[in-house]
Amino acid sequence: MAAGYHSAVVPVSGRVMSEPPASLLEFPCPFPIKAMGKAEADFRQLVIEIVRRHAPELSTNQVSVRESSGGKWLSVTLVILAQSQMQIDAIYRDLNSHERVAWAL
Predict the structure, then answer these.
(1) pLDDT tens, 62-85?
(2) Which of 13, 40, 59, 64 shows the greatest Cβ crowding within 10 Å of its Cβ?
(3) Cα-based distances in Å from 75 to 25, 43, 47, 100
């Protein structure tokens, strides 16, 4: 089990057991990911490249882009076929750690 993916449960017996947190998702499943950054020409491609590290089957047909009303920001939404919670977490970790990504949902 990966670090950070368990919680301690103490039953009446007092013995500690480790259990993974329950997921509300059934994998594989379509899962939308949105990243926001400054409206620069290559931001869409940057987000696609980051996500493809973890979801290489991502098609550009599954990507949509929207510019903010003021034109300063760009949001990129991608729909992947998520295989696991660990895959989703890794994508968010990589997106949020990139200096050009303001936030990811």
Answers:
(1) 999 999 999 999 999 999 999 999
(2) 64
(3) 24, 9, 10, 12
